[in-house]
Structures are given as structure tokens and as C-alpha cells.
Design brief:
By secondary structure, the protein is α/β, with parallel strands linked by helices. The chain folds into two domains: 240 residues, Rossmann fold (3-Layer(aba) Sandwich), CATH 3.40.50; 169 residues, 3-Layer(aba) Sandwich (Rossmann fold). It has 16 helices and 13 strands. The strands form two sheets. It has a seven-stranded parallel sheet with strand order 3-2-1-4-5-6-7, sandwiched between helices. The protein has a six-stranded parallel sheet with strand order 10-9-8-11-12-13, with helices on both faces. Strand 8, helix 10 and strand 9 form a beta-alpha-beta unit. It is globular.
């Protein structure tokens, strides 16, 4: 089974959970002996792990023929394009794409991030997808998140292969209901053209069915999972440097993640306990507002903002924590609590999160119930038996939530859309 996947980010260069989930799922699927994955992203950086898949950069894919020799392409792109790939791709290059958008190789430039001209990059990405789909034969096309739905549609149109789209979030989650009509239109178009839709939770599945008017038979939930810890991460030691208890929020500081509820819960806990510090790790458009909020509540001396963390820094922070809190207003899944539980950190998650559907050994509160959240934090840092139970049982539980199992569910969906009989 050959899958042509379109994504937007891939570790180690990630800005959120999308890249983490893309990595985990593809690595889990690679355990299937007959599974071959080509993963396309706008701009590879060259240090991605390609031991279990092949990464193609849209920025390295010519869309106009400029009669450049293979030797020149090799020198410019290094090992990112093989000799055979070059000649296959040359046969499928669009000759009519405007030269002003391309470099000296006839490739479109991409930022590899989420620029101000994001809609333009999404459109350009879909154009490149047509060349890539003609170049690399596949059995199924798989598009991750709304940014890549137009690319998936284009690839389906030029190949006739079935399209599976993966809904990691919708604009209803990101905007608290104040939906951008252009984004909604792209999401809706992707769902309408898809042969099947994967959602990361039943919460998201219901949104797809109710807000995008999709036939429930076309939508399947495949919950996310977590990567096993490698020895290097296991060896990381706590670096809190304080005897105080540490309570951590880790994620994008945006309205979707409910950071203001975390600050309010911290204020309430600090009315009863002085031996606790709160950490808001991450970055986002509400960060300055949260700094002011903590100052308004006069808890700045107990509140720390670390900025964006990645890779080992995430686990250094988690291992230095006594409690992890995810107070998201609308969280399609939420991998970070699983990562916290994996290193033995008791976790509190909002009932409005997809991971709450599969986790048992966590405390669940409504995102808006600040008193319940504060009580949960206080209880974990005050009662050792409660802390120990959640630490030990939570780790046991999350160690059995594996990407390999999620990959097997995705494979069954592939088989179904490809008309392969399942036994």
C-alpha cells in the first residue's frame, strides 16, 4: 500500500501538535510491512527523520521547465532529489505557471511556516501537489489538516486515487465559534471531496457532522497516541531548582487553549497554599495579556512565562512539574497530557478535549469551572496518596496508547476506500 501524504510541518521543526501527530502516525504505520509513505511538506529543513518514510519538499519541486541540467539540480538540492526523481518529475512539470513566482530551478518558494500570505502558500502548495502526484504513483492520498486539503483535492483530480482527509482541528476550535469564512470554505470543500474523513476525537467528529453537514457514515474517529520515550528523554532530570510545587500549562497561548482559566485557577490555589509556582510554557497572541492578568491578580512572583519550548526542553519542563493542566476551551485531542503522564506527571484536562474521551487516570473539569480546577490542583499537591496514584496509574495507562494501533485503524480505512476486502 502506497500512501501519498500532504502535511504542513514535521519534527523537529514544529509549531504545534500537527507535526507531532503526523510524525507519530506515520512512524506507527511504518510498522506495517507493506506500507510505503511519501510525506510532502512545503519546506523541509534537511534534518527530518526519513528512516521510515520519504519526505518531499514542495519548495524543491519544479513547476516550470527551465532546461536546467541534472548536475545543477543536484548541486542546488543536494540529496533531496534523486536522479530518477528528477527525470520523472521533468516529464510532469507545468509549462504554463508564471515564472515570476519561481526561482532559477522553476520551483515555488515556501516559508515552511504560517506566514501572513498563508492562503497564497496554500494555493501554491496545491499547484505543486499536481506535479508530485503525477510523479510518485500511489494507492491513496492522505491530507493532514485544512492547509493541505486543496493539495489533496488536486492530487485526487489528476490521479483518480481516493482521498482521505485528516481533521486535526476545525476553525470552530481555533476561533471559539467566530469562524473565518475562507477557512471554513476550504475545510468544507476538503470534506466534500474526500472519500473518507478521519477525526482525532468524537468531539471533532460531531463538529464535522453537525457544522459541515457531512454524512456520519463518511467520518471515523482515530484517536491520537504518544511516541514511546527514547533513552535520551528518559535520562532527563528534573531542573525545577525549587522546593515549591510546580504546576504547568504547556501549549500555544491562544484563546482556544483557555490560558486565562489557568491564571484564575492559580490565583485561587495561591489563596490557600504558598508553596506552589505556576508555569505558562509556550507563546501566542494572548501571552502579553496573560502577563498583565497575572500582574492584576498580584501573583507575578509565583507565575513564570518560559516562551516557546521544543524537543528536550518540553520534557525538561514536564519532568520538573508536579501537576500538568490543559484547560482548553475546545481541544480536538491534546497530546500534551499524554506526554506529561508518560513521565509520571498527574494531569488535569478539560472535559472539552478529545483526550478526555480515552483517558481514565486524570482529573477532568469543565474549562470554565475555575473552582473545580483549583481544587484539583490543590488536592494533587497536598495529598501524597492522590499524587502517587495519578502518577503511577496514569503512566501505566498512557504507555498502552500507541501510534501503531492508530495506524492500524487508518490502514483499515485505506483498504476500504481502495476497495480491498477486509477479513
Amino acid at each position: 500500500m502506497k500512501a501519498l501524504m500532504f502535511g504542513w510541518e514535521f519534527p523537529p521543526h514544529i509549531l504545534g501538535g500537527l507535526g507531532t501527530a503526523s510524525y507519530g502516525l506515520t512512524k506507527g504505520m511504518s510498522k506495517q510491512s507493506d506500507m510505503e509513505i511519501i510525506f510532502v511538506i512545503p519546506k523541509p529543513w534537511g534534518d527530518e527523520d526519513q528512516s521510515f518514510l520519504k519526505i518531499i519538499g514542495a519548495c524543491n519541486t519544479p513547476v516550470v521547465w527551465k532546461d536546467v541540467r541534472w548536475e545543477y539540480v543536484r548541486d542546488r538540492l543536494g540529496s533531496t532529489m534523486s536522479h530518477d526523481d528528477y527525470y520523472r518529475m521533468r516529464d510532469h512539470i507545468y509549462a504554463d505557471f508564471s515564472y515570476k513566482y519561481t526561482n532559477d530551478l522553476g520551483c515555488i518558494e515556501f516559508s515552511g511556516r504560517y506566514p501572513d500570505n498563508l492562503l497564497e502558500e496554500i494555493n501554491n502548495y496545491s499547484i505543486v501537489a499536481g506535479v508530485i502526484a503525477r510523479t510518485y504513483p500511489c494507492d491513496v492520498i492522505h491530507s493532514h489538516d485544512w492547509l493541505t486539503y486543496p493539495a489533496g483535492i488536486h492530487a485526487k483530480n489528476v490521479t483518480g486515487k481516493p482521498l482521505v482527509i485528516h481533521v486535526h482541528a476545525t476553525d470552530f476550535d481555533r476561533s471559539r465559534g467566530n469562524v473565518n469564512p475562507q477557512v471554513y470554505g476550504i475545510e468544507k470543500d476538503g470534506m466534500d471531496h474526500a472519500d473518507h474523513i478521519i477525526t482525532v476525537s468524537n468531539l471533532t467528529r460531531n463538529t464535522v457532522i453537525e457544522k459541515y453537514y457531512i454524512d456520519p457514515r463518511k467520518v471515523t474517529t482515530v484517536h491520537n497516541a504518544v511516541e514511546p520515550l527514547d533513552p535520551e528523554i528518559e535520562a532527563i532530570q528534573s531542573r525545577s531548582g525549587t522546593k515549591d510545587k510546580v504546576v504547568t500549562f504547556l501549549g500555544r497561548i491562544t484563546m482556544q487553549k483557555g490560558p486565562e482559566y489557568f491564571v484564575e485557577a492559580a490565583y485561587r490555589v495561591l489563596q490557600k497554599a504558598d508553596n506552589v509556582r505556576f508555569v505558562m510554557a509556550g507563546s501566542g497572541d494572548k501571552m502579553n495579556e496573560m502577563i498583565r492578568h497575572a500582574a492584576y491578580r498580584k501573583i507575578s512572583d509565583k507565575f513564570h512565562f518560559t516562551g516557546f519550548l521544543k524537543g528536550k526542553q518540553v520534557y525538561e519542563m514536564l519532568k520538573s512539574s508536579d501537576v500538568y493542566v490543559m484547560p482548553s476551551v475546545s481541544e480536538p485531542f491534546g497530546i500534551s497530557p499524554l506526554e506529561a503522564m508518560q513521565v509520571g506527571v498527574p494531569s488535569i484536562v478539560s472535559k472539552q478535549s478529545g483526550c478526555a474521551e480515552i483517558l481514565e487516570n486524570v482529573i477532568k473539569t469543565d474549562y470554565w469551572d475555575i473552582d473545580a480546577m483549583a481544587d484539583a490542583i490543590y488536592s494533587i499537591i497536598t495529598y501524597p496518596s492522590m499524587y502517587t496514584y495519578l502518577k503511577e496509574e496514569g503512566k501505566k495507562e498512557v504507555d498502552e496508547i500507541k501510534w501503531e494501533y492508530a495506524g492500524q485503524k487508518v490502514r483499515r480505512i485505506y483498504d476500504a476506500v481502495c476497495g480491498i476486502k477486509q477479513y
